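Quarterly update from the structural biology core.
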Amino acid sequence: MSVDDDATPHVPSVGADPQGFDGMVDDEADDPHEVLSEVDFDTELGIAMAEDAKRVSRGELTSDAYWEKYDEAAEAEFGDAYRETPNPAVDRGEQTISDEAAQSLGCSVGSMCDVAEQLDAEDADGDTPRWGMVIDLQKCVGCDSCTVACKAENRTPPGVSYNVVMEEERGEFPNVTRTNLPRPCMQCENPPCVQVCPVSATYKMDDGVVNIDYDRCIGCRYCMIGCPYGARYFDFGENYDDEVEGAGEITSPEYGVDRGKREAEAGKSPVGNVRKCSFCTHRLERGEEPACVETCIGDARNMGDLDDPDSEVAEMADSTRSFQLKEGEGTDPNVYYLE
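Predicted structure, tokenized:
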């Protein structure tokens, strides 16, 4: 059956328009003051920077103007961690503000590539895909196998779930329907989480994935409230040791970096860092699909190169059933949904 057909046989309509799905995301959003309540950094500064970062994504403010506005406050709040890195810019191809603007500010003049280091290595043949995911909502049965597979693969601690499935029921018994909305990181093309980071710890790779450099992240959590999708989490150092013997002995080599045994008491990364879905970058580099895609029992998730017009995901993303969450935010996610 073509992806342009109105419905999949024997599967009821999802029963919600894209704006309804946006509302489901908003209903799950955390209060920004609560998110920043236990952080040693300025709460009001973080909220203001996050809101303006979203304006940059929407094209209402330039990155240069953004950092001209927050340079003095960011330098006072974050000190050398701010001064030693270039300021990110989601509205420029280099992901870095212009040299002219940088020279007038307290940040370093340079490229985000210098910050990325080995985490942004291209394919050996130089042919880098732009990874994207398409999720068919008519095939999602709400089993949460994606959530479980993701936690098992990435060894995430309590309170950190890169993949969640939001649920909403409509109607009255016996005429009740349930809508399932899986939500990984959107891997946005214009990510406000990148824009708001004062230490350039998060950035976009050439393959479209938004990464976090745990060695640079200072745990300010400004990116968490800057994300319009609530797809970022803080690692408080909790574990499942009381439930699973040796749970912290092995950690997932996220972003291709093996960090060994989880050591919460020592504050070893990623403890004390913000964490998120990376499309299982370590699996993609091995030629494997993300764990959530591989284990989806309804075959609702599809992964591939959005820049390849002949790929299945590119065809799906271009179909009449396709939409993105919160399209009005200007983030241009690399995750698409089929109604």
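The chain has 13 helices and ten strands.
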